[in-house]
Design brief:
The structure holds 2 protein chains of 2 kinds.
Chain A: H1 2-27, E1 29-35, H2 41-57, E2 61-67, H3 73-82, E3 89-93, H4 97-102, H5 110-116, H6 126-130, E4 133-134, E5 137-138, E6 141-147, E7 149-153, H7 154-159, H8 171-181, E8 194-197, H9 204-216, H10 234-248, H11 262-270, E9 274-279, H12 283-290, H13 296-299, E10 300-303, E11 313-322, H14 329-339, H15 342-352, H16 359-362, H17 366-369, H18 374-379, E12 384-385, H19 393-408, H20 414-430
Parallel strand pairs in A: 1-2, 1-3, 8-9, 11-12
Antiparallel strand pairs in A: 3-11, 4-5, 6-11, 7-9, 7-10
Chain B: H1 8-35, H2 49-56, H3 58-90, H4 96-108, H5 111-122, H6 128-135, H7 152-178, H8 181-189, H9 194-222, H10 226-231, H11 243-253, H12 257-285
The chains are: A alpha/beta, B mainly alpha.
Chain lengths: ~425, ~290
């Protein structure tokens, strides 16, 4: 009799277990998550650890990762969104958002945010939230939020007789430093080290690095109403000519500028071919990865972008988007909420050195305030400026870079090239 | 149920036909329709606005002529090098299979990978090419292969020559192997020199294969994208911008779907015109 009861109990327990297990499996939701950081060694490890935490907290949600290269992310998300098959959650630059908003490729997050309570968005910097809005409603959540600053190699400063504790404060001083840092180090009569490395290729990274020049000179790309080009001002001409002449006249930038993308410039810094670059939170870990022998976290230092007329720099802001085609919006929101939560944002900083768009992280976390790089970046947030959030911006920037390259390689004078950019940008805006 | 033999062909042809309609016809029709759609948000109906904009776009005109230059020199050099290598590989060469594999290697490398590799080879600071040319005394100082306005397009074409000649070589090698040996023997008995044999035996024997290689290579090179995108993104300025990179930019970076579709339609029409001799030749054979 006892045996019979035992057997019955075992069968029932097994049935219940199977039933529950089957139920759990049946309830499990699969989310597609895509981020260009998944292709980067340092970030990939960090994101995988983050996903493990998320899946432990949300056993009913399975996250499938879809890596995409930095250059191809817009292509992938555009094609997939147009086909109604975009990843449930994906990561883009804030300046790409207007195009996604305009095509209806980002889901309105307002209903989810309202459920979180009226003060939910107070944790973020207001500017970051404003940039996520389309027709007054939040269509994305802000992620990394950093200013561009001047990174420099302290050892190369010392070798050139410069005090590493006194980085250049003005662009004139910067030029004088760059000239001293441009040297023939092996005595063969040829320059083999340059003062400044920068992006000159048609890359999204270019505008981030040119922003501190144009804005600090008191100029801007567009008029305040964003309906016309503002590149015909003396300030814009001065900023443009200053940048071009770093290469053409002063020769403090390495050869091949028009083909240089951000990774190549970071490689130049890692290999001690250049002494200064514009960068942000991602710079030290990536440079360290390229050349661990440099000891980047020790040797590199950073300072606010030099000033001409006023302190100004570019702000990097990324954003998390939910596809309007997602079949699991609640679970996708859970994932976005996790990716932008206070603890998670702090983890992104500790692992990847990127500061957060959350005030309760970037503004108070001791890890950030005591970090020699992050503290400088955070101090520059009041001087930070974002690129115009209009759908024509990528085309305007491509036009601007095209003209800049024509001036750099000597096809046109800086004034001619800038004049053409001014006309073409006006034509784009008038279209 | 037994299908009448008269209609049996439909069973074999229709699946492939519908598959072609799905993967080729549908995107093509969608793209054509897109090209006639208005660009203003909320506007409906069809318009020629994108095509009118094309005519006024100075970048499009420059890009079109850049494409003509890029394709002409790429295809021309592919034909010359492809034929030369095919003739060497068709001769009594020791270790012929090994040389055939080596000659095919550039064709195996994906476009973007080839572009990235050559961008590093051309790098003025770290690049192997400058280093080699300086060491053998040809250059005194490094050359900015991709940033010099006089060299950027030539540098891109040189990489494309390396990347694309095996395709032409393969077609012409097949053609060379089909030329009967006795024609060469008869020409030799008649006292024809190697050059005369090449002009009167080899070239006529290869005529059809040359047309095939020309047509296919032109189509292939007009669509060439990854190589230039990885090396120059169309720069400096727009000196190396070609139709494929310009279309990509318009579609995926500027989100101008209608305009990008109009460029694609123009590209397709041009390519169809270029392919007509090939299509005509195939139809004549049938």
């Amino acid at each position: 009799m006892m045996k019979k009861y035992t057997a019955t109990a075992i069968v029932m327990a097994a049935a219940l277990t199977l039933f529950n297990f089957g139920g759990a499996l049946a309830d499990q939701v699969t989310l597609r998550f895509s981020d260009w950081h998944l292709t980067e060694d340092v970030w990939n490890k960090s994101l995988n650890e983050g996903m493990d935490i998320f899946q432990k907290e949300n056993p009913n949600i399975k996250v499938v990762q879809e890596p995409v290269s930095y250059a191809e992310k817009e292509t992938k998300y555009t094609v997939e969104s147009a086909a109604g098959r975009a990843p449930d959650v994906f990561h883009v630059h804030a300046f790409s958002l207007p195009m996604f908003f305009g095509k209806g490729f980002a889901k309105d997050l307002t209903p989810f945010i309202e459920k979180e309570g009226p003060k939910f968005l107070d944790a973020w910097y207001p500017l970051a939230i404003d940039l996520m809005k389309h027709n007054g409603k939040v269509h994305a959540m802000p992620g990394d939020y950093m200013t561009m600053v001047l990174f420099y190699n302290t050892e190369m400063f010392k070798d050139a007789g410069l005090d590493p504790n006194k980085p250049p404060k003005t662009w004139d001083e910067f030029l004088s430093y760059a000239k001293k840092l441009t040297r023939d180090t092996d005595g063969d009569g040829k320059v083999d080290q340059w003062g400044f490395g920068t992006v000159g290729a048609k890359s999204p990274g270019f505008s981030l690095r040119f922003g501190p020049f144009i804005w600090s000179f008191g100029a801007d790309y567009l008029t305040p109403d964003m309906k016309g080009s503002a590149l015909d001002t003396p300030e814009a001409k001065a900023a443009f000519a200053f940048f071009v002449e770093l290469y053409t006249k002063h020769k403090v930038v390495p050869p091949g500028l028009t083909a240089m993308n951000p990774q190549e410039v970071r490689t130049q810094l890692a290999q001690k071919k250049v002494a200064m670059i514009m960068g942000s939170g991602w710079t030290p870990p990536i440079v360290n990865k390229i050349n661990p022998a440099l000891n980047a976290f020790e040797v590199l230092s950073c300072a606010p972008a030099p000033v001409k007329v006023k302190p100004a720099t570019a702000i990097w802001l990324s954003s998390w988007v939910m596809s309007p085609n997602t079949k699991h919006p609640s679970e996708a929101w859970q994932l976005i909420k996790f990716l932008t939560a206070k603890d998670t944002e702090l983890k992104w900083f500790v692992d990847n050195r990127v500061t957060s768009s959350r005030k309760d992280v970037s503004g108070v976390a001791p890890e950030i305030l005591n970090d020699k790089f992050a503290s400088v970046m955070a101090s520059q947030l009041p001087n930070g400026k974002v690129e115009p959030q209009i759908p024509q911006w990528p085309e305007i920037m491509d036009t601007f870079t095209t003209s800049l390259q024509e001036a750099i390689v000597g096809m046109k004078t800086p004034d001619q090239a800038l004049g053409e950019a001014h006309q073409r940008i006006n034509a784009i805006l008038a279209r | 149920m037994r299908i009448n033999d008269r209609y049996m062909w439909t069973v074999f042809v229709l699946p492939a036909f519908f598959l072609l309609i799905l993967v080729l016809g549908w995107p093509a029709i969608t793209s054509i329709l897109y090209s006639f759609q208005p660009t203003q948000a909320g506007a409906t109906g069809y318009t020629l606005a994108s095509y009118k904009s094309l005519l006024k776009d100075p970048f499009f005109k420059t890009t079109f002529w850049n494409t003509v230059v890029f394709v002409s020199f790429s295809v021309g050099s592919h034909m010359i090098l492809g034929l030369a290598v095919a003739m060497v590989l068709n001769s009594a060469l020791p270790a012929k299979p090994m040389f055939r594999v080596i000659a095919l290697l550039p064709w195996v490398v994906p476009d973007v990978v080839a572009g990235i590799i050559w961008k590093w080879m051309y790098n003025p600071i770290y690049g192997a090419l400058n280093d080699l040319l300086i060491k053998v005394g040809i250059l005194e100082n490094p050359v900015e292969w991709l940033s010099n306005p006089k060299l950027a397009m030539i540098s891109a074409i040189l990489v494309n020559l390396w990347r694309g000649f095996p395709f032409v070589m393969l077609i012409l090698l097949a053609g060379l192997q089909a030329i009967p040996r006795h024609l060469y023997e008869a020409a030799a008995i008649d006292g024809a020199s190697k050059l005369t044999q090449f002009i009167y035996v080899t070239l006529p024997g290869l005529r059809k294969m040359i047309v095939v290689a020309l047509a296919l290579d032109i189509v292939w090179e007009v669509r060439r994208f990854g190589l230039i995108q990885a090396m120059t993104q169309g720069g400096p300025g727009i000196l190396t911008e070609v139709l494929s990179t310009y279309t990509y930019k318009q579609y995926f970076q500027f989100f101008r779907f209608e305009y990008a579709s109009a460029i694609s339609v123009v590209m397709t029409v041009v390519l169809l015109m270029v392919s007509l001799p090939y299509i005509w030749m195939i139809s004549q054979e049938e």
